[in-house]
Amino acid sequence: MVPGIFGASVYQVNFALSRMIASGLEKGSTSALYYASRIEELSLGLFSIALAAALLPAFSEHVAAREIGEMKRTLGFSLKLTAIVSFPAAAGLVALNVPIMRTLFERGAFDRSSTALSAACLLFFAIGLPFVSGVKVVAPAFFSLKDTRTPVAIGIAVMLVNIALSLILMGSLRVGGLALALSLSQILNFVLLLVWLERKVGPTERARWAASAGKAAAAAAVMGVTLRLGWPALGVDSASFVVRAAALFGSIVAGIVIYLGLLRLISPADLKSVFGLLKK
Predict the structure, then answer these.
(1) Is 1 helix (H, G, I), strand (E, B) or coil?
(2) Taking CA 20 as the corner, what is the angle to CA 139 and CA 103, rounded to the nearest 5 degrees?
């Protein structure tokens, strides 16, 4: 029971360690990590939780029926779906990190310097967002195979790497370095879990879902650059809260439209499969 909980909660453990380290940095660093992490979790929290909750029984059913091929197909589709949703979310957070933090939190004691610290953390958190979501897909596969040792062993290694990277990166990037260390450690976590899972069950049709992920990342990158360049043109940084909030909402909607339009051009089959799933 305990190993399973630890294996599924590596990110939360690492985040707690990062907050402890941040307490030794300049004032506001711990809060910056906290507020940025809330935005990161909000962007995909419900999606990731719902997907992870659905995958464990599905994987367990395939394993019980000895349908490893079906399990791998379910895994591949889930990773593709995760990429299609998480890459644009990450790109949006990178592009609008400052407007998001300023609009939502900048008032009272939360001043411009607080916004700058939190926005830097949000940017670095966003880099690891697709991989945090990917871990939530891959980890249940181990539990369905009744293997809790592997996620725990990998989790311990990832935790040590996170601590080492935090101590290295905080020197130049300060609290942003802690956020970047968390993201890099989660990329490692995802890669190690996937490699070890393929050692247990064989190849996971990586070429298929990786191609879809690549197209999603490309469309998300174009969308992100467009939003990043377009925000200053709106000229709302000195406007009232209501105007800035409306501009932020409009930018998010525009980003979604741009992303879906690009995905329809370069990967119509993937877009169709996602909408087909939503209809169900």
Answers:
(1) coil
(2) 85
Burial 110-142 (b: 16+ CB within 10 A, else e): beeebbbbbbbbbbbbbbbbbbbbbbbbbbbbb
pLDDT for the residue numbered 89: 94
Q: Which amino acid is at 27?
A: K
**pLDDT tens digits, residue range 111-166?**
999 999 999 999 999 999 999 999 988 988 898 888 888 999 999 999 999 999 99
Do 11 and 22 form a contact (C-beta atoms < 8 A)? no
Cβ-in-10-Å burial (0-12, 13-18, 19+) of 16 comes to exposed
- Residues 78 and 93: their CA atoms lie apart, in Å, by 22
Q: How many contiguous H segments (helices) and E segments (strands) does the chain have?
A: 11, 0
Q: What CA–CA distance (Å, rounded) separates 279 from 187?
A: 31
Q: How many CB atoms lie within 10 A of CB 250?
A: 12
Residue partners of 24: CB distance under 8 A and separation at least 6: none
Closest CA to 36 of 131, 130, 132, 116: 116
Identify the bridge partners of residue 107 per DSSP, sorted by sequence position.
110
For the chain, first and last CA: distance in Å? 33
* Amino acid (one-letter) located at 121: C
Place of tokens 């990277």: 165
* Two tokens, residue 278: 């939503």
pLDDT of residue 238: 87
pLDDT of residue 56: 66
Give dist(CA 254, CA 259) in Å, integer: 9
Give the predicted TM-score (pTM) of the model: 0.91
Residue 111 phi, psi (nearest 5): -100, -170
Give the largest Cα separation in the chain, rounded.
61
Which residues of the chain, if any, have pLDDT below 50? 1-5, 7
